[in-house]
What we know:
Helix content is 3%, strand content 51%. It is mainly beta. Strands 8-9-10-6-5-1-21-2-14-13-17 form an 11-stranded mixed beta sheet, with no helix packed on it. It has a 5-stranded mixed beta sheet with strand order 7-3-4-12-11, with no helix packed on it. Strands 15-16-20-19-18 form a 5-stranded antiparallel beta sheet, with no helix packed on it. Strand 5 (74-78) and strand 6 (83-88) form a beta hairpin. The relative contact order is 0.22.
Amino acid sequence: xNLNNVLARRALAHTAALWVALLLAAPGALAQEAAAEAAxxxxxxxxxxxxxxxxxxxSVRITLTLSQPAPEPVVFSVDKPARVxxxxxxxxxxxxxxxxxxxxxxxxxxAAAEAAGRxxxxxxxSELAPYTVRTEGNQVFLxxxxxxxxxxxxxxxxxxxxxxxxxxxxxxxxxxxxxxxVIVKLADPRTIVxxxxxxxxxxxxxxxxxxxxxxxxxLDVLDFATPVKFIDILREGRNTSIYLTPxxxxxxxxxxxx
Length: 258
């Protein structure tokens, strides 16, 4: 898994809020985790079915059927190119057709692949759209919203016109391996987040998202002895942006998950 410019999104159904964590660490701090991910799986679970259909509302629903109870999926969302990737840990790929041309709604195609003991489903899209993921028994359902771009309801009270979500809180913590973690709590689990390196900083941009004035500030976290020096939180147009500035001259890797 490419740790740069990758957003792992776990969209939880029936949840009013979700957490997004951004992690900066020296490359060695993540080496053990990467080795653990690459270890072969002893699970006999297989992905046996991959079906794609549309709903009456114009959404695209992807149904994954496994031979055993499904693991909690981890979903990676990337803005450019627009795609959503769903990982199933300890799962082998057994579907006969590994690529489906869809061209429905915003979904262009769906592909499946197996590596390092896990199965990954990649949904290629014309543009990112809100989506939900839910697990029921041995099935996983991923539904990509149709209709207009972005969420259509306002969370957390009234905000500027066109703003659909809200940042509720921003927290910083030092991890057990010395990494710096920025934890952002959101009002809407469908919020689209774009994480990328911009110059010498890491930017997490929350699309179409409001934030209260008292949360818009610079945090000096150098005393925590992590790779993070400053955290700048601000509104930029209809988006909320969080910039992470690393300690000068320090090599780092960043990973984001939800």
